From TrEMBL:
SUPFAM superfamilies attached to this UniProt entry: SMAD/FHA domain (SSF49879)
Pfam family, one: FHA
InterPro entries named among the record's database cross-references: FHA_dom, SMAD_FHA_dom_sf
Name assigned to this protein: Oxoglutarate dehydrogenase inhibitor
Span of domain FHA: 24-73
SMART domains the UniProt entry points to: FHA
Organism: mine drainage metagenome
Length: 246
Protein backbone atom coordinates (compact mmCIF):
# COMPACT_ATOMS: atom_id res chain seq x y z
CA UNK A 1 0.00 0.00 0.00
CA UNK A 2 1.30 3.49 -0.82
CA UNK A 3 1.84 5.96 1.97
CA UNK A 4 -1.10 8.26 2.67
CA UNK A 5 -2.14 11.40 4.50
CA UNK A 6 -5.24 11.66 6.71
CA UNK A 7 -6.61 15.23 6.82
CA UNK A 8 -8.45 16.18 10.01
CA UNK A 9 -9.58 19.22 11.99
CA UNK A 10 -10.49 19.25 15.67
CA UNK A 11 -10.20 15.46 15.72
CA UNK A 12 -12.67 14.91 12.87
CA UNK A 13 -11.30 13.12 9.81
CA UNK A 14 -12.09 15.04 6.63
CA UNK A 15 -10.40 13.09 3.85
CA UNK A 16 -7.71 10.54 3.01
CA UNK A 17 -5.07 11.15 0.33
CA UNK A 18 -2.84 8.36 -1.05
CA UNK A 19 0.68 9.56 -1.90
CA UNK A 20 0.70 7.90 -5.31
CA UNK A 21 2.50 10.74 -7.12
CA UNK A 22 6.13 11.75 -6.90
CA UNK A 23 5.14 15.33 -6.01
CA UNK A 24 1.99 16.12 -4.03
CA UNK A 25 1.15 19.77 -3.39
CA UNK A 26 -0.84 21.22 -0.49
CA UNK A 27 -2.50 24.64 -0.57
CA UNK A 28 -5.60 26.80 -0.68
CA UNK A 29 -5.91 27.10 -4.47
CA UNK A 30 -7.83 24.41 -6.37
CA UNK A 31 -4.85 23.36 -8.53
CA UNK A 32 -3.24 21.66 -5.52
CA UNK A 33 -3.50 17.91 -4.96
CA UNK A 34 -4.64 18.52 -1.36
CA UNK A 35 -6.85 21.59 -1.16
CA UNK A 36 -7.44 23.22 2.24
CA UNK A 37 -9.80 26.15 1.69
CA UNK A 38 -8.82 28.30 4.64
CA UNK A 39 -7.26 31.77 4.76
CA UNK A 40 -4.55 30.51 7.13
CA UNK A 41 -3.33 28.28 4.29
CA UNK A 42 -1.21 29.81 1.52
CA UNK A 43 -2.12 29.39 -2.15
CA UNK A 44 0.81 26.99 -2.51
CA UNK A 45 1.68 26.03 1.06
CA UNK A 46 3.76 22.86 0.97
CA UNK A 47 4.83 19.91 -1.17
CA UNK A 48 5.63 16.26 -0.47
CA UNK A 49 8.02 14.39 -2.75
CA UNK A 50 7.67 10.61 -2.58
CA UNK A 51 10.36 8.35 -4.04
CA UNK A 52 9.57 4.65 -3.62
CA UNK A 53 8.92 4.28 0.16
CA UNK A 54 10.38 7.62 1.25
CA UNK A 55 8.60 10.98 1.50
CA UNK A 56 10.11 14.46 1.97
CA UNK A 57 8.03 17.44 3.16
CA UNK A 58 8.94 21.00 2.09
CA UNK A 59 7.36 24.32 3.11
CA UNK A 60 6.90 26.39 -0.07
CA UNK A 61 7.67 29.72 1.65
CA UNK A 62 4.15 29.82 3.07
CA UNK A 63 2.92 32.82 5.05
CA UNK A 64 2.04 30.98 8.24
CA UNK A 65 4.45 28.05 7.98
CA UNK A 66 3.86 24.51 9.17
CA UNK A 67 4.89 22.19 11.97
CA UNK A 68 5.59 18.47 12.26
CA UNK A 69 4.75 16.86 15.61
CA UNK A 70 4.49 20.32 17.14
CA UNK A 71 7.89 21.56 15.91
CA UNK A 72 7.98 24.33 13.25
CA UNK A 73 9.98 23.21 10.22
CA UNK A 74 10.80 24.15 6.64
CA UNK A 75 11.70 20.63 5.55
CA UNK A 76 11.24 17.20 7.06
CA UNK A 77 11.94 13.58 6.20
CA UNK A 78 8.56 12.00 7.03
CA UNK A 79 8.27 8.98 9.33
CA UNK A 80 5.23 6.80 9.97
CA UNK A 81 2.64 8.54 12.22
CA UNK A 82 4.17 12.02 11.80
CA UNK A 83 1.56 14.77 12.09
CA UNK A 84 1.85 17.81 9.82
CA UNK A 85 0.09 20.87 11.22
CA UNK A 86 -1.10 23.70 8.97
CA UNK A 87 -3.22 26.19 10.89
CA UNK A 88 -6.05 24.27 12.55
CA UNK A 89 -5.66 21.38 10.15
CA UNK A 90 -3.64 18.22 10.68
CA UNK A 91 -2.29 15.76 8.12
CA UNK A 92 -1.23 12.43 9.60
CA UNK A 93 1.39 10.56 7.56
CA UNK A 94 0.89 6.79 7.46
CA UNK A 95 3.40 4.47 5.82
CA UNK A 96 3.57 0.78 6.69
CA UNK A 97 6.49 0.17 4.30
CA UNK A 98 10.04 0.26 5.69
CA UNK A 99 11.83 3.44 4.68
CA UNK A 100 15.22 3.04 3.05
CA UNK A 101 16.59 6.44 4.05
CA UNK A 102 17.08 8.05 7.44
CA UNK A 103 16.70 11.71 8.33
CA UNK A 104 20.43 11.77 9.08
CA UNK A 105 21.27 10.50 5.59
CA UNK A 106 18.97 13.10 4.05
CA UNK A 107 20.86 15.87 5.89
CA UNK A 108 24.43 14.68 5.27
CA UNK A 109 26.55 16.85 3.05
CA UNK A 110 29.56 16.47 0.83
CA UNK A 111 31.85 19.37 0.07
CA UNK A 112 31.67 20.32 -3.59
CA UNK A 113 32.57 23.97 -3.77
CA UNK A 114 31.43 26.02 -6.72
CA UNK A 115 30.43 29.67 -7.19
CA UNK A 116 26.69 30.20 -6.88
CA UNK A 117 24.88 32.85 -8.89
CA UNK A 118 21.32 32.76 -7.60
CA UNK A 119 18.94 35.73 -8.02
CA UNK A 120 18.91 37.91 -4.87
CA UNK A 121 15.16 37.40 -4.49
CA UNK A 122 15.77 33.72 -3.85
CA UNK A 123 17.70 34.64 -0.73
CA UNK A 124 20.59 32.36 -1.58
CA UNK A 125 24.20 33.20 -0.76
CA UNK A 126 26.55 34.18 -3.54
CA UNK A 127 29.51 32.78 -1.62
CA UNK A 128 31.00 29.34 -2.38
CA UNK A 129 28.52 26.67 -1.49
CA UNK A 130 28.79 23.20 -0.05
CA UNK A 131 26.77 20.93 -2.30
CA UNK A 132 25.92 17.43 -1.18
CA UNK A 133 26.06 13.96 -2.54
CA UNK A 134 25.74 11.04 -0.17
CA UNK A 135 26.59 7.36 -0.48
CA UNK A 136 25.88 4.80 2.27
CA UNK A 137 28.64 2.53 3.55
CA UNK A 138 31.35 4.30 1.56
CA UNK A 139 32.84 6.70 4.09
CA UNK A 140 36.17 6.47 2.33
CA UNK A 141 34.77 7.27 -1.09
CA UNK A 142 36.52 10.15 -2.81
CA UNK A 143 33.31 12.16 -2.69
CA UNK A 144 32.40 11.34 0.89
CA UNK A 145 29.09 10.67 -0.74
CA UNK A 146 26.10 8.78 0.70
CA UNK A 147 23.45 7.09 -1.41
CA UNK A 148 20.27 5.84 0.20
CA UNK A 149 20.12 2.08 -0.31
CA UNK A 150 16.75 1.48 -1.86
CA UNK A 151 15.18 -1.89 -2.52
CA UNK A 152 15.10 -2.71 -6.22
CA UNK A 153 11.73 -2.27 -7.86
CA UNK A 154 9.99 -5.56 -8.33
CA UNK A 155 8.95 -5.18 -11.95
CA UNK A 156 11.28 -5.33 -14.92
CA UNK A 157 15.03 -5.15 -15.09
CA UNK A 158 17.34 -2.27 -14.29
CA UNK A 159 18.84 0.31 -16.67
CA UNK A 160 22.56 0.21 -17.48
CA UNK A 161 24.92 1.57 -14.86
CA UNK A 162 25.25 5.35 -14.96
CA UNK A 163 27.64 8.01 -13.69
CA UNK A 164 27.43 11.66 -12.70
CA UNK A 165 30.63 13.61 -13.40
CA UNK A 166 31.33 17.02 -11.83
CA UNK A 167 32.22 19.61 -14.47
CA UNK A 168 33.14 22.74 -12.49
CA UNK A 169 34.77 23.81 -9.26
CA UNK A 170 37.68 22.17 -7.42
CA UNK A 171 36.10 18.72 -7.81
CA UNK A 172 35.78 18.99 -11.59
CA UNK A 173 36.41 15.62 -13.23
CA UNK A 174 35.40 13.52 -10.24
CA UNK A 175 32.72 10.91 -10.79
CA UNK A 176 29.95 9.31 -8.74
CA UNK A 177 28.63 5.98 -9.98
CA UNK A 178 24.86 5.69 -9.49
CA UNK A 179 24.84 2.17 -8.10
CA UNK A 180 21.89 2.61 -5.72
CA UNK A 181 18.23 3.24 -6.51
CA UNK A 182 18.15 6.66 -4.88
CA UNK A 183 20.84 9.35 -4.88
CA UNK A 184 20.38 12.66 -3.10
CA UNK A 185 22.13 15.71 -4.56
CA UNK A 186 22.17 19.26 -3.29
CA UNK A 187 22.43 21.39 -0.19
CA UNK A 188 19.66 21.09 2.43
CA UNK A 189 18.08 24.52 2.88
CA UNK A 190 19.19 25.67 -0.58
CA UNK A 191 18.43 23.17 -3.33
CA UNK A 192 17.96 19.40 -3.17
CA UNK A 193 17.06 16.88 -5.86
CA UNK A 194 16.96 13.10 -6.02
CA UNK A 195 18.06 10.78 -8.81
CA UNK A 196 15.88 7.67 -8.89
CA UNK A 197 17.04 4.54 -10.70
CA UNK A 198 14.06 2.73 -12.21
CA UNK A 199 13.61 -0.22 -14.56
CA UNK A 200 12.98 2.14 -17.48
CA UNK A 201 15.70 4.69 -16.73
CA UNK A 202 16.98 7.39 -14.38
CA UNK A 203 14.78 10.28 -13.25
CA UNK A 204 15.65 13.53 -11.46
CA UNK A 205 13.03 15.08 -9.16
CA UNK A 206 13.10 18.41 -7.34
CA UNK A 207 12.77 18.00 -3.56
CA UNK A 208 13.62 21.32 -1.97
CA UNK A 209 14.56 24.90 -2.81
CA UNK A 210 13.14 28.08 -4.28
CA UNK A 211 14.27 27.24 -7.81
CA UNK A 212 14.32 24.02 -9.81
CA UNK A 213 17.43 22.26 -11.10
CA UNK A 214 18.06 22.53 -14.84
CA UNK A 215 18.81 19.86 -17.42
CA UNK A 216 20.48 21.08 -20.60
CA UNK A 217 19.68 24.65 -19.55
CA UNK A 218 15.95 24.10 -19.03
CA UNK A 219 14.18 23.97 -15.67
CA UNK A 220 12.88 20.49 -14.82
CA UNK A 221 9.83 21.93 -13.06
CA UNK A 222 7.84 20.03 -10.44
CA UNK A 223 7.51 16.71 -12.23
CA UNK A 224 10.12 13.92 -12.48
CA UNK A 225 12.38 14.38 -15.50
CA UNK A 226 13.90 11.39 -17.28
CA UNK A 227 17.62 11.72 -17.91
CA UNK A 228 19.23 10.93 -21.27
CA UNK A 229 22.81 9.98 -22.01
CA UNK A 230 25.13 13.01 -21.66
CA UNK A 231 22.47 15.32 -20.18
CA UNK A 232 23.95 18.34 -18.39
CA UNK A 233 22.52 18.96 -14.90
CA UNK A 234 22.96 22.20 -12.94
CA UNK A 235 22.06 22.13 -9.25
CA UNK A 236 22.89 24.99 -6.85
CA UNK A 237 25.68 26.27 -9.06
CA UNK A 238 27.33 22.89 -9.64
CA UNK A 239 27.33 21.51 -13.17
CA UNK A 240 27.31 17.77 -13.74
CA UNK A 241 27.12 15.45 -16.72
CA UNK A 242 24.96 12.33 -16.57
CA UNK A 243 26.00 9.45 -18.78
CA UNK A 244 25.65 5.69 -19.06
CA UNK A 245 28.70 3.48 -18.57
CA UNK A 246 29.68 1.50 -21.64
Amino acid sequence: MPAKLILSMDGAVLKEYPLNKERTTIGRKPHNDIVIDNLAVSSDHAAIVTILNDSFLEDLDSTNGLAVNGTPTKKHFLQNNDVIEIGKYKLKYLNDQPTQTSAADFEKTMVLRAPVKMPPKEGFSRSPLDVTLTRKSEATAQFNATNSGMAAEASGGQPPAAVVQILNGPNAGKELELVKNLTTLGKPGVQVAVLARRPHGFFITHVEGGSFPTVNGSSIGEQPHQLRDHDLIELAGVKMEFYFKT
